[in-house]
Amino acid sequence: MPQIINDGGELIRINLSNNMIEYSTTGGRAWFRRFLGTSNVGVFIDLIVCSNEIIASTTKGIYYSRDRGRTWFARSKVGSGCGEFASLQLNGAELLGITAKGLFFSRDQGRTWFKRGN
Fold first, then answer.
1. Where do the structural domains in the chain lie, given as residue ranges?
2. Which of 69, 110, 89, 68 has its CA nearest to residue 1?
3. Which position among 46, 57, 89, 99 has the lowest Cβ density within 10 Å, counted as fewest Cβ atoms?
4. What SS3 state is found at 29?
5. Cα(23)–Cα(6) distance, rounded to whole angstroms?
């Protein structure tokens, strides 16, 4: 589960102790708050850079940010048939999501999900 990513020279991470998105421009020597998690977004679980977005799995679903994590918007909610996403991974043109219900894939940056295999 990547809880830290590199996006355009910044390190961006999930601070698990207070559900905060933080960033560093000093290679991780100093961290600064970028977004304090809210009840709308849920608890951050995983981050991934996908094209011009940061995509996050949270306890409320898949969220995306186009401004390096300053603001977050819902892409797909928990209960959409996939369950809660535990981790995300890029596989070429596909975004893979692992849930308790199995392996799912998306070819449109997490807008729609399909179960892989049985």
1. 4-115
2. 89
3. 89
4. coil
5. 10
Report CA dihedral (37, 16, 31, 25) to the nearest 10 degrees. Answer: -90
Contacts of residue 11, defined as CB under 8 A and 6 or more positions apart, other chains included, come to 4, 5, 23, 24, 25, 27, 28
Question: From first to last of its 118 residues, what are the pLDDT tens digits of the chain?
Answer: 558 898 888 999 999 899 999 999 999 999 999 998 778 899 999 999 988 899 999 998 899 999 999 999 998 876 667 888 889 999 988 999 998 889 999 999 988 899 987 6
Specify the CATH class of 4-115 in words: mainly beta
Burial class (CB in 10 A: 0-12, 13-18, 19+), 76: buried
* Alpha carbon distance 106, 76 (integer Å): 11
